[in-house]
Request: fold
Amino acid sequence: MKKILVVEDEVAIREFEVINLRRVGYETVEASNGDEALQIYEEQGDFDIALLDISMPGMDGLTLCKELRRRSPSLGIIMLTARTQEMDKISGLMLGADDYITKPFSPAELLARVDSLYRRVDTQRVAPKKQNSDEIKLGEFTLNIRRRTLAKNNRNIELTQVEFQIIEYFFTNPDTALDRTDILNRVWGEEYFGEEKIVDVNIRRLRIKIEDDPSRPKYLMTVWGMGYKWNTNQGA
Reply:
């Protein structure tokens, strides 16, 4: 059963989400605030996706996102934001969310975004069994495909499942400029109808994790007017 944690303090919106998710086969567990959601997660912990409203009393969605991501790099996390919460969207992604949905939204959009994320989460569970080679080494970095890990100078760097997919794409195409649209299609899927800026925010998050100086990257380089590339020429 596909299991999703639905966290929303407004009863009508929560019921709307739950009804539509159950209709297509998701097992849903509801929480009305962040504190309740965190307790449920710690008690059960076998969720595939968490759907989090940002604006809630007590522990808000951003704090909850940070706490859930700290507990699980593989959990799929979608934030629900209002149209005016542009900075909250970016903040949520920087804290580890995989996607966001802007209110108001239709049942079709909700299900499309949840299904898309579930496919990515589910694919990552079985992907290691299909790999022929365990490791890719580029300079001081080692990407272990089977274990889904990245290490820099033998120090493990914790990645979300989205971050791992991005890094894997770069490592299998080193020194190659990758278009934002290509990255979006590869990681989020061709049916994804969100915004390309989700790629840029994830690159920023990755730079914080892998670069010695994120403001002056030497590995994850910007290719102006196109996208990004993984640079194997140290200091180039």
